[in-house]
Design goal:
The chain has ten helices and 23 strands.
Amino acid sequence: MKRREISFILAGFLLFLIPLQIQTTAVLPDLLPARQINIDRNITGNIHNITDMDMAQTRVAALDPAEEEFAGSIQDALGESVGSASIFSADKTAEDYKLAYERAKNANWGYTNLGIANVSDNLNIRATAAEDGKLVGKLPKDAACEVLDMDDTWVHIKSGSVEGYVSQEYLVTGIPAKHRAEELASTVARVTTDSLNVRAEANTDSEVITMVPMGEELEVAAVEGDWVKVLLDDEEVYVSAEFVEVSAELGTAVTMSELLYGQGISDVRVDICQYAKEFLGNPYVWGGTSLTKGADCSGYVMSLYKKYGVSLPHSSRAQANCGTTIKVSEAQPGDLIFYGKGKTINHVAMYIGGGQVIHASSPKTGIRISNVSYRTPFKAVRILQD
């Protein structure tokens, strides 16, 4: 008699579970894309015969690369696997899944199909998918791009204002690109006022070190209430949080027009600028002079000029006393631009034309290109007397 009672109880419990499973499954199309649900429905038919680990492995095997990327983004947003077991988890609501979907759509820093340059220096961007195609730009090491189309050899990309073709061999895409981007993305503070004071400490009574123009981006070290600690080259300084927008950014391509110098510029000036750009992305090392293994600001400039037979001291202040002082507005490619903390020079960069300088900036960014007015220039000096 007891066996019959137990059998009836078990049968009733199982009958009760069936409509619950059907009802839960019917809600899902509003929460996740249909292709995702179809895959999970195929799995749930055998849900009582396999373990959670089996379900995860079966589901991953059924996904194509695009679906894997979507699932990976959802998983990141929810903080766990998105197999059948988690879809039916009682602690996730419809709002949780909707929020996860929105996060997943924006998980790649604004890129739909993210690509990352996997090179030691710069990746050539060409107008056509051919090795002899016209150069239209450069994608620096670890910079990001939108992948528009690809085959076994060439990838059609867009990065910043540059669109063209790069070698598939040197571009990371898909899930590896997202993981690489998570390591590379830097938090920046974009200036939203005409001229922003940069201070030594986080208060309005502190010394104003320099001023930064609207639109310039500063590397964020930390957000501390009403103040943002930023890196000004190799120094930690502060700006008011009220006048900046903080966001995560990835580097983008450089156009060929940003690499040109204009008419009337001597060959030696063009050559030293081209030479300087060969070391973009290489490390910043305090006291260093190696263009490949690491240099600080004055060590970088000193080593560049050494190739052209010019001897400079290893100090930005000492270099500022070399050559001929000129107006910043008169600077030509190859001239030196100096920056200061208050009235003391503490940084040097080389002007490369087009309103830009190249310099060994900080341990975080290494050798980079910036706008000449990324901070207030202190003075300009002409070393090359051509």
